[in-house]
């Protein structure tokens, strides 16, 4: 009997880490767009409620600043301002400056045998430079996280196929180009979310330690808008990130087979404030003393 108990305990000790949820082991990583992700692609995980993340990405032809907020337990938002291109006529030699707004919606949290599932809208308000949507699933096995999903819009540029949602309605078959009245940003324009052809994407993250994470992803985005100033030599992106402390993460990536990039993330949360103001010890109570009173060695609680 004791041998059976020992064997069962050993078996559980081996199996449970394999099927443990990533959220129980490793913190959620942000991608270059400021939401849960690998490098450029999303994952199905979610940030802790109330998480606020500041993102800064830089490489030769891009400068991207962003702020993300987990507004509700299952709903996160991200706002970015990006300068694209080199040798252009705009500020800092950019060809274009663009604002974009994203939403990440968690449908299902990861369980022992089921992946986490999320939906996302990328750049759904504005001129639509990154206009795309996704359905994504993520499953963890110990230190390994596997992600796969379907992309639409810009995330359906490589090896695309007919939209599987067209089985629900023929309206999903066609996708119109993003338009805004007078080409003004800050408006919804025509709503064609999850319309048009779809492409598969996938990626992997391996947590080498508590601080170092290795990442690789296959992106269907062919970067057609950036092709005039950015060499796109392949669909694979590679990255390594280092968790400097509880608040700062630094990442370097090799993108599109041609471009080195660096990204810094700063995350804060009311649940883990960097400064513990208000929790220090109280000062020594005031003592009632007369002009000629001798020093008091003991407090008089009744007088105080």
Characterise the protein shown here:
- The structure is a single chain.
- The protein is mainly beta and 304 residues long.
- It is 6% helix and 37% strand.
- It has one helix and twelve strands; from the N terminus they run H-E-E-E-E-E-E-E-E-E-E-E-E.
- The relative contact order is 0.14.
Characteristic key phrases:
304 residues, mainly beta, 1 helix, elongated
| Strand residues, percent | 35-45%
Rounded to an integer in angstroms, the radius of gyration calculated over CA atoms is 25 Å
What is the N-to-C order of secondary-structure elements (H for helix, E for strand)? HEEEEEEEEEEEE
Tell me the number of helical segments per DSSP (H or I, 4 or more residues long): 1
**Biggest sheet record:** 12 strands, antiparallel, barrel
Structural class, from helix and strand content?
mainly beta
Helix content: under 10%
Shape: elongated
Unreliable segments (pLDDT under 50, ≥5 consecutive)?
Answer: 4-23
Which strand order does the major sheet show? 1-2-3-4-5-6-7-8-9-10-11-12
What's the overall average pLDDT, rounded? 86
Distance between the termini: 66 Å
Number of DSSP-assigned strands = 12
Quaternary structure classification: single chain
Topology of this structure?
Layout: H1 2-19, E1 52-59, E2 62-72, E3 75-84, E4 96-108, E5 116-122, E6 132-141, E7 144-153, E8 198-207, E9 212-218, E10 236-243, E11 248-255, E12 259-268
Antiparallel strand pairs: 1-2, 1-12, 2-3, 3-4, 4-5, 5-6, 6-7, 7-8, 8-9, 9-10, 10-11, 11-12
Structure in a nutshell:
With 304 residues, the chain is mostly beta strands. Helix content is 6%, strand content 37%.
């Amino acid at each position: 009997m004791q041998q059976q108990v020992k064997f069962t305990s050993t078996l559980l000790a081996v199996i449970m880490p394999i099927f443990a949820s990533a959220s129980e082991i490793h913190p959620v990583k942000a991608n270059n767009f400021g939401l849960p992700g690998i490098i450029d692609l999303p994952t199905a995980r979610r940030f802790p409620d109330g998480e606020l993340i500041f993102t800064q990405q830089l490489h030769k032809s891009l400068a991207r600043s962003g702020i993300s907020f987990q507004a509700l337990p299952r709903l996160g938002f991200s706002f970015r301002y990006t300068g694209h291109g080199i040798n252009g006529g705009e500020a800092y030699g950019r060809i274009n400056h663009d604002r974009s707004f994203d939403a990440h919606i968690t449908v299902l949290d990861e369980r022992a045998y089921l992946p986490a599932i999320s939906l996302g809208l990328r750049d759904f308000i504005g001129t639509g430079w990154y206009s795309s949507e996704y359905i994504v699933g993520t499953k963890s096995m110990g230190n390994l996280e596997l992600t796969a999903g379907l992309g639409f819009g810009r995330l359906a540029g490589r090896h695309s196929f007919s939209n599987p949602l067209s089985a629900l309605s023929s309206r999903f078959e066609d996708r119109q180009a993003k338009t805004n009245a007078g080409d003004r940003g800050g408006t919804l324009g025509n709503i064609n979310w999850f319309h048009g052809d779809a492409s598969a994407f996938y990626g992997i993250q391996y947590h080498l330690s508590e601080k170092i994470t290795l990442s690789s992803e296959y992106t269907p985005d062919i970067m057609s808008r950036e092709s005039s100033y950015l060499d796109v030599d392949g669909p694979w992106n590679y990255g390594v990130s280092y968790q400097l402390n509880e608040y700062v993460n630094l990442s370097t990536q090799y993108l599109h087979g041609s471009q080195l990039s660096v990204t810094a993330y700063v995350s804060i949360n009311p649940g883990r404030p960097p400064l513990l103001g208000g929790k220090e010890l109280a000062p020594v109570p005031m003592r009632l003393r007369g002009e000629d009173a001798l020093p008091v060695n003991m407090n008089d609680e009744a007088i105080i």
